[in-house]
Amino acid sequence: MRIAGTGLAACVAMGVALAVAPAFAQWQPTKPINIIVPWGAGGSTDQVARVMAPIVEKALGQSVVVVNQPGASGAIGTKAVLDAPRDGYTWTANAIANNATYTVTGLIEDTSIDDWHIYLSVANAPVVSVPVDSEFQDFGQLLDAFRQRGNEITVATAGVTSSGGTAIAALADAGGFEYRMITYDGGNPAVIATVAGEAMVTTQLAVEQSEMIRGGRLRPLAALTDQPLEIEGMDPIPPITQWLPEMPVAPDYFGIFLPRGVPDEVVATMDRIWEEHMMNSEELKAYARERGAVFAPSYGEEARRLAMPIGITEACGRAARGAAENDPSIIGIDCETMTEVGRN
Asked: Which fold has domain 5-123+251-340?
């Protein structure tokens, strides 16, 4: 399946070589593990977390419980994990773009991607969609309307730092228009609200929209990719570069994150689980194929390398829009060169 040529497929292809974990004793948890999803039920993070959790649970021989704790664009649940004991029993699931930029957005103080052990599963892309009875038949018509009507056009997202929120902000930058955002407690509520006519557009991820698109409730106009987005059983969704050829696109990776400071044997055990079970998971492959995601498991330094482009893009995009509470240099990102330079 293809989702974003050089912007995504190339990154995924580079994820073959994985770091080898040092030899530590096998971790055998003695109580259930909580994965805190800092978004509402049914959204992109929740969906893939509930695919990953049973795989990890079976490998560990211990219950793995997904707990939804939404609020503040994912910051409340994420902060709860950072504040929890570092004993290996409290993890989070999220998009890497969020965990990498919470300090830039000002939602969590002094945190960065390096506060986490990273275990990625899939890469996702946003889709611009409208209700099936919308006046807009393609993205070109919607773009004209945005430019002419601006704040009259309402866009449903899961919040300003959600995938949908950052997608519409990037679109507005590239397309030169204004809009009015309506926020919801998760991607799934935002999509449902768009279907119900509460908003004219949604820019949430394909995985959150695929059922409504397949069911004829939403009309997809464009994917934020540089090649057509393919979802099983559906017509390909045109890439945004068909209308905005200079717009930068980068894959957003989702996965499970363990806070730094958990015991070494926890990390070594999770590395082994990812290598032996997640890298070839038929359940995860099926989820990606059916929902419009890319199957892209990785862990450790390789996961960090693959994930950083979207973190840099999101942080610097916010700074350019004047929407950053803190300059990205505070987490070691130089927006002039779009590279990492080390934390101050």
From this structure: D-Maltodextrin-Binding Protein; domain 2 (3.40.190)
